[in-house]
Amino acid sequence: MTPTRKQRRLFITDCEGPISKNDNAYELxxxxxxxxxxxxxxxxxxxxxxxxxxxxxxxxAGDTLRLILxxxxxxxxxNEKMKKFSTEHILLVSGAKETLRFVxxxxxxxxxxxSYEQYMRALCDVLDFPFENVHCTKLDLDKYKVDNEEAEKxxxxxxxxxxxxxxxxxxxxxxxxxxxxxxxxxxxxxxxxFWEELSSMxxxxxxxxxxxxxxxxxxxxxxxxxxxxxxxxxxxxYLGDSITDVQPFRMVKERGxxxxxxxxxxxxxxEAEIAVLSEHTIITSVLAEVFCHLGREGxxxxxxxxxxxxxxxxxxxTLQSRMHRLYPKNLPQVEVVTSTNRERLIEExxxxxxxxxxxxxxxxx
Length: 365
Prior knowledge:
- The chain has about 375 residues and is an alpha/beta fold.
- The chain folds into two domains: about 5-20 and about 95-135 and about 215-360, HAD superfamily/HAD-like (Rossmann fold); about 25-85 and about 140-210, AF1437-like domain fold, CATH 1.10.3870.
- It has helices at about 5-10, 25-30, 35-55, 65, 70-75, 80-90, 95-105, 115-125, 150-160, 180-195, 205-210, 215-230, 245-255, 265-270, 280-305, 310-315, 315-325, 340-355, 360; strands at about 10-15, 110-115, 135, 235-240, 260, 275, 335.
- Strand 4, helix 13 and strand 5 form a beta-alpha-beta unit.
- Helix 2 (about 25-30) packs across helix 3 (about 35-55), helix 6 (about 80-90) runs parallel beside helix 8 (about 115-125) and helix 15 packs across helix 16.
- The N and C termini lie far apart (about 45 Å).
């Protein structure tokens, strides 16, 4: 039987942000590495510079997850310890499990995440979500060895990085020259550490061999899903919230699919068609249902008319009832992103995500 357009529609979502409140790599680094929170945040800012400003050849948003690996290893992380920590610290966005169950009943559903496989396996166990429908960063940390000499070097690098001033990225920066002089020096030294000194060490194999699913790798995963389901990008919806979602946002949007920023940062809001600010995932359920039945155009019309009358017009009675119970008065903020409201939405969404995920995690790229 030939699939109908409705049957061929796809729901594809990032994980951390739209489904969970975690930033698992940040949390692992904070747990295993001394002063790990600040250490990770600095490297994450460096990641933003490499991916969005320098556009380093072969580098993509989310490659923070390979840069931190030698340090996780030397401070005692293992496959099993990462899985155990992840299992014990999963924090879902309210309604996430119910939303995924609901959306799976509508159309083929996939998660594309930069997160490590250890975290995603733990999350799938909690969500009862099929791991075969997940694309994420494959990692076997146990196969890598760090001898005593390299371990001592890594600890010295950690001390040096932890003492560096936080990189500040001006909103209008388009080249390395747009950074402040102190930050250019920090980036230069991190270049030396990661691409000269660490890369020449045995543990540098982690930087070469581990391929985080971020940026263009996320876009590649989306394309793989589309081809494997005999669907099309125009029949696909994609939810994301960060710099790692820029390429899939652009690809899906250019081909006529639906793109949604869920509590996104500036990178996500700038690229998406719709911005959602919500502490509960039922908004995702609403958008998914309308997309399943009416496609991208139906979702755009719903959001343009956003309010209780629009919910009665476009949504099933089941979702209307759930929405009314959760929001008897004011609905969460949902808007079509335009040239006139984009900067306001960036400011509002960036602030809102910090209230949902916390100041530290919410401030990451």
